[in-house]
Amino acid sequence: MDICQIFNRNMERSGSSVFLMVCSMMDYGKRQLLNSERIKEKGDMFRTIIRECLRKGDVYTQYNGAQYLLLLVGTNRENCEAVFRRIRKGVKDQTGSSVEVDFVVSSLGNIRREDDV
Questions:
Q1: Helix (H) or strand (E) holding 36
Q2: Angle (nearest 5°) at CA 100 between 96 and 101
Q3: At what angle do helices 36-53 and 77-95 cross, to 10 degrees?
Q4: CA–CA separation, 53 vs 70, rounded Å?
Q5: Which of 20, 47, 69, 89 sits most deeply, having the most CB atoms within 10 A of its CB?
Q6: Which residue has the higher pLDDT, 42 or 49?
Q7: Coil/strand/helix, residue 9
Q8: Rounded to an integer, what distance in angstroms lies between the CA atom of residue 91 and that of residue 25?
Q9: What is the pTM of this model?
Q10: Beta strands in the chain, from DSSP E residues, in sequence order
Q11: How far apart are CA 45 and CA 94, in angstroms?
Q12: Which range is most confident: 3-7, 29-33, 105-109?
């Protein structure tokens, strides 16, 4: 049993939802951050902001230098967008306009493996 199946089974039992969010830090103009020194310099700040914007039951992990994966439990899409707005505001407050953030979010209930189809 994979992680999506476990979450789907628990979501069905409890009636709660789980959303997966990918938060990406980018240069001004939404260009991918390529400079490894700049990624390292801003990465600690990005991690701290994400940690401070999440609720106690939410979890996150670093995917690469400029991206984090967030699991938002027991929420809805609108609240996911509110979390993102807090993250974006925190980054803007810390960096001005030199760094931007973007996100993609999906319900784990909507994620299907190829062999499930």
A1: helix 36-53
A2: 135
A3: 130
A4: 11
A5: 20
A6: 49
A7: helix
A8: 9
A9: 0.78
A10: 18-27, 31-32, 59-64, 67-73, 99-107
A11: 8
A12: 105-109
